[in-house]
Automatic annotation (TrEMBL):
Membrane-spanning intervals of the chain: 16-36, 43-68, 80-100, 112-141, 161-188
UniProt name for this protein: YitT family protein
Topology term for the membrane: Multi-pass membrane protein
Keywords associated with the record: Cell membrane, Membrane, Transmembrane, Transmembrane helix
Listed InterPro entries: UPF0750_membrane (IPR051461), YitT (IPR003740)
Localization in the cell: Cell membrane
Main localization of the protein described in the UniProt heading: membrane
A cellular component term, taken from the record's GO annotations: plasma membrane
Top-rank taxon, per record: Bacteria
Length: 200
């Protein structure tokens, strides 16, 4: 990104607030339906189901080990922005169920909405030099150290996560969850310019 394309502090703040807010809203849809997703958010959702703890605190805790990796791989600014995004999303995910309630929400439509909203949230964060932390940072670091492609690491992680989910959730739930995760990845793959913005 050239100097002329650098976002201002205000622009970064609104982009991170938008991304974290939309991500929290998407997670509210996901957990209302009892679905899961991929990556670190998916791990946190599954752990919250298994332990009874809310998604917000679990997601915040799961991300803690990754900030040092983020600092080493992406630098201080990225790490601070990512910490802010994760903290804001975690807090909003605690509050959101009291603010947003669903009288009727079909599972297929909810899965699609989750994917689309999550994708737009992640795009906003990526374009302002942040992420929602986690596995993507580790994947990039492994790629730097070993040459093993980051996308493959993320794919393996998601495959294991969904396989574990199949042992504790109904197969149809995992199927609709996979649809939502697919939509997230398609939104990012189609709309994210890796030659211009930081991606994880």
């Amino acid at each position: 990104m050239t100097e002329a394309e650098t976002h201002s502090l205000t622009e970064d703040a609104q982009g991170i607030a938008y991304g974290a807010g939309m991500a929290a809203f998407a997670i509210t849809i996901l957990t209302h339906l009892g679905l899961i997703t991929g990556q670190t958010a998916g791990l946190a959702v599954l752990l919250s189901y298994l332990t009874g703890y809310g998604f917000g605190p679990v997601f915040f805790a799961v991300n803690l080990p990754f900030y040092w990796l983020g600092y080493r791989r992406m630098g201080l600014a990225f790490t601070l922005k990512t910490f802010a995004a994760v903290a804001l999303m975690s807090g909003l995910a605690v509050l959101m169920p009291a603010w947003v309630r669903f009288d009727s929400l079909s599972t297929p439509v909810g899965a699609l909405l989750f994917g689309a909203i999550s994708g737009s949230a992640l795009l906003a964060l990526f374009r302002h030099g942040a992420s929602l932390g986690g596995v993507g940072i580790l994947a990039l670091l492994l790629q730097d150290k070993t040459g093993f492609r980051a996308g493959h690491t993320q794919l393996i992680f998601d495959a294991v996560l969904f396989a574990v989910a199949l042992t504790v959730l109904p197969a149809v739930t995992v199927m609709w969850s996979a649809l939502g995760a697919l939509v997230v990845n398609l939104v990012i793959a189609i709309n994210h310019r890796r030659d211009r913005y930081i991606a994880t």
